[in-house]
Amino acid sequence: MSANIIPLKKGQPSGAVMVAGAGIAGMQSALDLANAGYLVYLVEKNISIGGIMAQLDKTFPTNDCSTCMISPKLIEVPPNPNIKITSRATIDKVDGEPGDSTVKIKKQARFIDEDACTGCGECIKVCPVEEPADFNLGLNQRKAIYRHFPQAIPSAFA
Fold it and tell me: Among 47, 89, 94, 138, which is disulfide-ready with 107 (CB 3.0 to 4.6 Å)?
């Protein structure tokens, strides 16, 4: 990221930045950069943003409600026009140098068209296959088609 990038027009992104990981820190970084005028590519390896914080009930040592902390970010990030979310993706290759680099990401198949999925959940009702729920650390079963949690962003199933 270069410090000498100047916006060309008011309201237009001044450069592009990639944030790897869309946990609470990644989402906050994306919001800060987007509000500073950068186009942000927010890349997450899971099917939804939120990271480990989305799996917690309380945080240590303050015992704060983790949902209360993460929900505002889940509301602010998706509609921001300067943030482009790419889920189920990992960094494959980085070329260049700081301030002038190209990142190649590897996107895993979701097997559901994100643009066509309405998030209604009808597919879960007819899915016959169950497997351990990775979101709950394998403590329960989930259907082969799933969404990590009801407020997951993107809301499309995988």
Answer: 89
Q: Are 77 and 30 in contact (CB under 8 A)?
A: yes
- Cα distance between residue 87 and residue 23, in whole Å: 12
Query: What residues have CB less than 8 Å from 55, skipping those under 6 apart?
Result: 135, 136, 137
User: Which of 5-9, 39-43, 144-148 bottoms out in mean pLDDT, i.e. has the lowest?
Assistant: 5-9
Question: Structure pTM?
Answer: 0.84
Taking the C-alpha atoms of residue 79 and residue 83, their distance in angstroms, rounded to an integer, is 8
Quote the tokens at residue 101.
């680099």
Give the Cα separation of 50 and 147 in Å (integer).
13
